[in-house]
Write a structure and sequence with these properties.
single chain, alpha+beta, two-stranded antiparallel ribbon, 6 helices, 4 strands
Protein backbone atom coordinates (compact mmCIF):
# COMPACT_ATOMS: atom_id res chain seq x y z
CA UNK A 1 0.00 0.00 0.00
CA UNK A 2 1.25 3.47 -0.83
CA UNK A 3 2.42 5.54 2.09
CA UNK A 4 2.41 9.21 2.95
CA UNK A 5 5.59 10.48 4.53
CA UNK A 6 5.97 13.28 7.05
CA UNK A 7 8.85 14.40 9.20
CA UNK A 8 8.58 14.90 12.94
CA UNK A 9 11.61 16.04 14.93
CA UNK A 10 14.03 14.63 12.33
CA UNK A 11 12.46 11.15 12.43
CA UNK A 12 10.80 9.83 9.32
CA UNK A 13 7.44 8.16 9.85
CA UNK A 14 5.16 6.68 7.23
CA UNK A 15 1.41 6.73 7.49
CA UNK A 16 -0.64 4.53 5.20
CA UNK A 17 -2.76 6.43 2.71
CA UNK A 18 -5.70 4.33 3.86
CA UNK A 19 -5.42 6.03 7.27
CA UNK A 20 -5.24 9.47 5.68
CA UNK A 21 -8.23 8.66 3.44
CA UNK A 22 -10.24 7.47 6.44
CA UNK A 23 -9.51 10.60 8.48
CA UNK A 24 -10.25 12.85 5.49
CA UNK A 25 -13.52 11.05 4.80
CA UNK A 26 -14.76 11.31 8.40
CA UNK A 27 -13.82 15.00 8.58
CA UNK A 28 -15.48 15.63 5.20
CA UNK A 29 -18.67 13.94 6.40
CA UNK A 30 -18.61 15.94 9.65
CA UNK A 31 -18.24 19.21 7.73
CA UNK A 32 -20.61 18.49 4.84
CA UNK A 33 -23.40 16.44 6.40
CA UNK A 34 -26.78 18.05 6.54
CA UNK A 35 -30.28 16.81 5.90
CA UNK A 36 -29.05 14.21 3.41
CA UNK A 37 -26.17 11.81 3.98
CA UNK A 38 -22.86 12.59 2.28
CA UNK A 39 -22.28 10.54 -0.86
CA UNK A 40 -18.98 8.80 -1.47
CA UNK A 41 -18.71 10.35 -4.94
CA UNK A 42 -18.83 13.83 -3.42
CA UNK A 43 -16.17 12.92 -0.85
CA UNK A 44 -13.93 11.42 -3.55
CA UNK A 45 -14.29 14.54 -5.69
CA UNK A 46 -13.64 17.03 -2.87
CA UNK A 47 -10.72 15.14 -1.34
CA UNK A 48 -9.19 13.63 -4.48
CA UNK A 49 -9.49 10.10 -3.10
CA UNK A 50 -9.79 7.22 -5.61
CA UNK A 51 -13.37 5.90 -5.40
CA UNK A 52 -12.38 2.24 -5.15
CA UNK A 53 -10.20 2.87 -2.06
CA UNK A 54 -12.70 5.25 -0.55
CA UNK A 55 -15.61 2.81 -0.71
CA UNK A 56 -13.59 0.04 1.01
CA UNK A 57 -12.48 2.47 3.69
CA UNK A 58 -16.02 3.79 4.25
CA UNK A 59 -17.36 0.24 4.58
CA UNK A 60 -14.67 -0.54 7.18
CA UNK A 61 -15.66 2.60 9.12
CA UNK A 62 -19.33 1.54 9.00
CA UNK A 63 -18.44 -1.97 10.17
CA UNK A 64 -16.51 -0.51 13.11
CA UNK A 65 -19.23 1.91 14.21
CA UNK A 66 -17.62 5.19 13.13
CA UNK A 67 -20.10 5.83 10.29
CA UNK A 68 -23.62 4.82 9.35
CA UNK A 69 -24.25 4.02 5.70
CA UNK A 70 -27.50 4.04 3.75
CA UNK A 71 -28.12 2.72 0.26
CA UNK A 72 -30.14 4.07 -2.61
CA UNK A 73 -30.19 7.19 -4.76
CA UNK A 74 -30.26 9.47 -1.71
CA UNK A 75 -27.99 7.22 0.28
CA UNK A 76 -24.59 8.00 1.67
CA UNK A 77 -22.77 8.28 4.97
CA UNK A 78 -23.30 9.99 8.30
CA UNK A 79 -21.35 9.96 11.54
CA UNK A 80 -22.54 7.11 13.77
CA UNK A 81 -21.78 9.10 16.94
CA UNK A 82 -21.49 12.70 18.00
CA UNK A 83 -18.40 14.47 16.64
CA UNK A 84 -16.99 14.90 20.15
CA UNK A 85 -17.14 11.14 20.73
CA UNK A 86 -15.14 10.19 17.63
CA UNK A 87 -11.41 10.38 18.22
CA UNK A 88 -8.76 10.22 15.52
CA UNK A 89 -7.43 7.12 17.32
CA UNK A 90 -10.82 5.41 16.73
CA UNK A 91 -10.50 5.99 12.99
CA UNK A 92 -6.88 4.82 12.86
CA UNK A 93 -7.64 1.70 14.91
CA UNK A 94 -10.67 0.98 12.76
CA UNK A 95 -8.81 0.89 9.45
CA UNK A 96 -5.62 -0.75 10.72
CA UNK A 97 -6.89 -3.55 12.94
CA UNK A 98 -7.62 -5.80 9.96
CA UNK A 99 -4.07 -5.53 8.64
CA UNK A 100 -1.33 -7.91 9.72
CA UNK A 101 1.75 -5.96 10.78
CA UNK A 102 3.94 -8.97 11.62
CA UNK A 103 4.73 -9.57 7.95
CA UNK A 104 7.63 -7.08 8.08
CA UNK A 105 9.34 -8.70 11.08
CA UNK A 106 11.13 -11.60 9.43
CA UNK A 107 14.27 -12.11 11.49
CA UNK A 108 14.49 -13.12 15.15
CA UNK A 109 16.19 -9.79 15.88
CA UNK A 110 13.29 -7.91 14.35
CA UNK A 111 10.71 -9.97 16.22
CA UNK A 112 12.45 -9.76 19.59
CA UNK A 113 13.77 -6.20 19.58
CA UNK A 114 12.36 -4.01 16.81
CA UNK A 115 8.73 -5.17 16.92
CA UNK A 116 8.34 -4.31 20.66
CA UNK A 117 9.88 -0.88 20.05
CA UNK A 118 7.51 -0.17 17.16
CA UNK A 119 4.58 -1.46 19.24
CA UNK A 120 5.52 0.94 22.04
CA UNK A 121 5.76 3.88 19.62
CA UNK A 122 2.42 2.94 18.04
CA UNK A 123 0.74 2.78 21.43
CA UNK A 124 2.06 6.25 22.35
CA UNK A 125 0.90 7.65 19.01
CA UNK A 126 -2.59 6.24 19.55
CA UNK A 127 -2.67 7.80 23.02
CA UNK A 128 -1.86 11.17 21.46
CA UNK A 129 -4.52 10.65 18.79
CA UNK A 130 -7.10 9.90 21.51
CA UNK A 131 -6.80 13.55 22.52
CA UNK A 132 -8.06 14.81 19.15
CA UNK A 133 -11.77 14.60 18.40
CA UNK A 134 -13.60 15.21 15.16
CA UNK A 135 -15.41 18.01 17.01
CA UNK A 136 -12.13 19.90 17.50
CA UNK A 137 -11.25 19.55 13.83
CA UNK A 138 -14.81 20.45 12.80
CA UNK A 139 -14.70 23.66 14.83
CA UNK A 140 -11.40 24.70 13.29
CA UNK A 141 -12.41 23.83 9.70
CA UNK A 142 -16.09 24.84 9.61
CA UNK A 143 -15.37 28.59 9.31
CA UNK A 144 -13.04 27.89 6.36
CA UNK A 145 -15.78 25.96 4.54
CA UNK A 146 -18.11 28.94 4.71
CA UNK A 147 -15.58 31.20 3.02
CA UNK A 148 -16.29 31.56 -0.69
CA UNK A 149 -13.04 30.80 -2.55
CA UNK A 150 -14.28 32.84 -5.54
CA UNK A 151 -14.49 35.99 -3.46
CA UNK A 152 -11.18 37.74 -3.49
CA UNK A 153 -10.24 40.20 -0.83
CA UNK A 154 -9.78 43.66 -2.20
CA UNK A 155 -6.81 45.57 -0.87
CA UNK A 156 -7.36 49.34 -0.85
CA UNK A 157 -3.86 50.22 0.31
CA UNK A 158 -2.15 52.68 -1.99
Amino acid sequence: MAQLEFELENYLFKVQKRIIYAIEAVIDIAINSGVNPVQNIAIARRQGIPKRYLEQTLQTLVKNGILNGSRGPKGGYRLAKERRKIKISDIVSSVTKEKKTNEIYNSDLSKEIIEPIIAKISKKCLLLLEEISIEEIYKSEKPKKNQDPKKKKVDFVI
